[in-house]
Amino acid sequence: MTEYAKPLPVPGPESVPFWEACRRHELSLQRCAACGSFWFPPGALCPTCLSESWSWEQTSGRGTVYSFVVFHRLYHPGFADDLPYAVAVVELEEGPRLPTSIVGVDDTELRCDMPVEVVFDDVTETVTLPRFRPRAEKR
Questions:
Q1: Whole-number Cα distances in Å, 132 to 43, 48, 92
Q2: Rounded CA separation 13/94 (Å)
Q3: What distance in Å separates the CA atoms of residue 95 and residue 16, rounded to the nearest whole number?
């Protein structure tokens, strides 16, 4: 594995289960036992009904591109070889939106509402990042 030169997440106590699931190549989010809502980022209370009763559940890993921006300016030296690069927000089928990157498609081909699915990038021995790639649309 080559050295990863980009910024890495620094998990807080509430997000450790999310990152552990990513290392297993699973996209798990908190789900409220009272109202059934999923949410992200992790937190102690359901943002919909404020219940303290919730669990971590694996999601489908499918969603659509909600929004994106293509960066043409270098803000961190680790991204120098990637310019231009896109940063996207994906809305999962379960509802929450995640900031991420889209792989397997040229930045000029990105569009809002593009169907995507999660893929996992083991960037270090201890960190796996969820990214998304285009998926075939059902006809």
A1: 23, 26, 11
A2: 23
A3: 21
